[in-house]
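Reviewer 2 asked us to include a model.

Predict the structure of this chain.
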Amino acid sequence: MNLSSLKQLQISKASQNISLLFNISTDWIPPFQLKYLCLRSCQLGPKFPLWLKNQNELNTIVLNNARICDTIPQWFLELNLQVNEFDVGCNQLSGKVPNSFNFQSHAMIDLSSNLFNGPIPLWSPNVSQIYLGSNLFSGPIPQNIGEVMPYLTNLDLSDNSLNGSIPSSIGNLNTLRTLVISHNHLSGEVPDFWDQMPYLYILDISNNSLSGTVPRSIASLESLRFFVLSNNNLHGKPPSLKKCSSIESVDLGYNRFSGNLANLIGGSMQSLLILRVRNNSFSDRIPSTICTLSNLHILDLSQNNFSGFIPSCMGNLSGFKIDLSSKDVGRFQWKLRVIAKGTVLEYFNTLYLVNSLDLSGNNLSGEIPNELMSLYRLWTLNLSSNYLTGNIPWRINSLALLETLDLSNNEFYGSIPSSMASLTFLAHLNLSYNNLSGKIPSNNQFKTFNDPSIYEGNIELCGPPLKKVCTSQSPNANANRDEEDEDGNNFEREPFFISMAMGFIVGFWIILGTFVIKKFSR
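Predicted model (structure tokens):
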């Protein structure tokens, strides 16, 4: 086969699993001059491929997930290539990154998920996309980054060891679409330049040490889809996002934000899938506006100071009544930690499957609205550590996909509904520290809940796994049986009552007929 005219070589796999190995001699000289090279999820390493030494016409170089454990060699830099795409992400390349690359207009460079260290390099103004996430870069973000590379559209410096403040020159990047600088050690205040970025749709500055208030100019980002400020020291009232009609994810968790949540959200945010404000200081009632966010799949208002009743209109949250498909995975682009099954679980590729409602750790009162029982695609329902009262709804078994149910540390009373035994997916249950009474159900799913801590703090509960033995004098000892008779077995009792009624009618007419016959016989 004559390959001397070969200009393009592409072997690309969507999967990260490597099944193709290149076993090439170190002294092999290719008979071709490539312009386009894309080898993705193919093993080329551990050394940087020497056969590229004579490939001096390359303009696209993709060696992603190639198991290369090396540095970028000097001979490669001396090729003086004019590159429009350089992607060596997902390897184990190390060392300092040279800034001597020559790039064509609108070039893209991806060095993510490697072991590169040293300061963030600055390249020519031709570069438009930079992905340096998940490396060992340190030091500050260059203060003049927005002046040296003014045409950047995508900038990802996440998961490194960067410190210092967010450079004000980033405000010059008026074509910027994504800014991801999360998981670093950045400090200082959030700059006020957002009204100069009309195309920004991803803003992630989470997991840093940023402080102060968030500028109101963020409210002007009408193209915003992902807004992530979690795990900082930000305080005050967050900016309104009511104009951000395309927004899909809002995560303000683990800060010190305060005020009324109604100032943050609006009915125009119909694309919103994730709203997470846990561990802040929001107060007042849960606004009814939240009930208009019909596409929500994850709602986390936990560990705040919300008070009042749970709005019954939350039963209108139709996002908790439908399933998304793998086609929707692009709408969930971030990892998210969700409290589920009694622990912290991190979701990424399967985040679109999660349906979670967490109102725990607030000052909510009143009963659980029956309308919540129509959210039948819920996976997680956490109402713990509030002041909720009343009975656990009998219809809770309509939440058939429930995996986590936490009602602990409230003031619920009455018996545990035996209908809960039909929740066959339920893996984590916590009913501790309430005023529940009667016999603990022991059939079906309850056979798996044999940890006494699930029920502790309910002094009137009895039966296994608790040591307290149920007696005929135990309050509500037969409550579950009565509930089953009233709610589950009515159809068995109906013939009995019908036959009683028919007997009464027949008997009545026999007696009346006998009286009439005797009367006329006289």
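Residues 477-522 have pLDDT under 50 and may be disordered. The longest strand covers residues 102-110. We have added this to the supplementary material.
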